[in-house]
């Protein structure tokens, strides 16, 4: 697919060789692929739910589904190696065949509220468009408990350029699971285990951070999950990348958090 081109749902069904009728929904996880297709109509017909959606200069302000069943898939798409592909139109009549303009690959930035959740997604520039890529099988289970540090850590390979619906560096899902197995589910910056704050809702959820950004790979590399990856809560993970030109290291952000905690404690003592 090519950014800026117009595609109808029927054309996409033919392209992906699928008869899945749920492609008519706004959120379409493409079976057999590492991709979720988002179909967004800015001005809805009066007989449809009036979600508030707007694409503005590469930022998509988008309302999720009312039932909230697909929210987790959007929030965790990067952690699960899933790409978000956005198809957008001003109205159903804007393009022939009720088509959509393909806007490209987007990433989750934030959300607020629920049912519907109000999402902010950001366009990822520079992705070369290619043919679809089928997903590969992955290990079915893993333990979130920290591993024995005396045991030898296996190394993993990732970063090979792969042809998905867009060209991107391959992410090794086994590597994510290995990192959680080694480091556990407590944030290595702020020391928060999400279950302590959110209870069963969070479970063992934690995000995995590449200390060496995958986008900077020039090819397939060998990665040690014990030294090259960290586990972070969503807030700390976002703060690491807050300045995209000069992202912080885990150690730098940890020092900032500790300094601010100390300052807050000192101020409370003076009150």
Give an overview in words.
With 271 residues, the chain is of the alpha+beta class. It has 2 domains: 1-127, SRA-YDG (PUA domain-like, Roll), CATH 2.30.280; 136-271, no CATH class. It is 21% helix and 24% strand. It has helices at 9-16, 71-75, 173-183, 194-198, 234-240, 250-270, and strands spanning 6-7, 27-29, 35-41, 54-56, 59-63, 83-89, 100-112, 118-123, 156-158, 161-163, 167-169, 207-210, 221-223, 229-232. The strands form 4 sheets. Strands 1, 2, 3, 4, 5, 6, 7 and 8 form an 8-stranded mixed β-sheet that branches. A two-stranded antiparallel sheet has the order 9-13. The protein has a two-stranded antiparallel ribbon with strand order 10-11. A hairpin with a 2-residue loop joins strand 4 and strand 5. The longest helix has 21 residues, at 250-270. It is globular, with a radius of gyration of 20 Å. The N and C termini lie far apart (61 Å). Mean pLDDT is 79; it is low at 128-153 and 159-170.
Structural class: alpha+beta
Shape: globular
Number of discrete helical segments: 6
Q: Major β-sheet, in short?
A: 8 strands, mixed
- The stretches of 5 or more residues where confidence is low (pLDDT under 50) are 128-153, 159-170
* SSE ordering: EHEEEEHEEEEEEHHEEEHH
Region (Disordered): 127-153
Protein name: HNH domain-containing protein
InterPro entries: HNH_nuc (IPR003615)
Organism: Thermosporothrix sp. COM3
Describe the protein's topology.
Elements: E1 6-7, H1 9-16, E2 27-29, E3 35-41, E4 54-56, E5 59-63, H2 71-75, E6 83-89, E7 100-112, E8 118-123, E9 156-158, E10 161-163, E11 167-169, H3 173-183, H4 194-198, E12 207-210, E13 221-223, E14 229-232, H5 234-240, H6 250-270
Parallel strand pairs: 3-6
Antiparallel strand pairs: 1-7, 2-3, 4-5, 5-8, 6-7, 7-8, 9-13, 10-11, 12-14
Region (Disordered): 127-153
Organism: Thermosporothrix sp. COM3
Protein name: HNH domain-containing protein
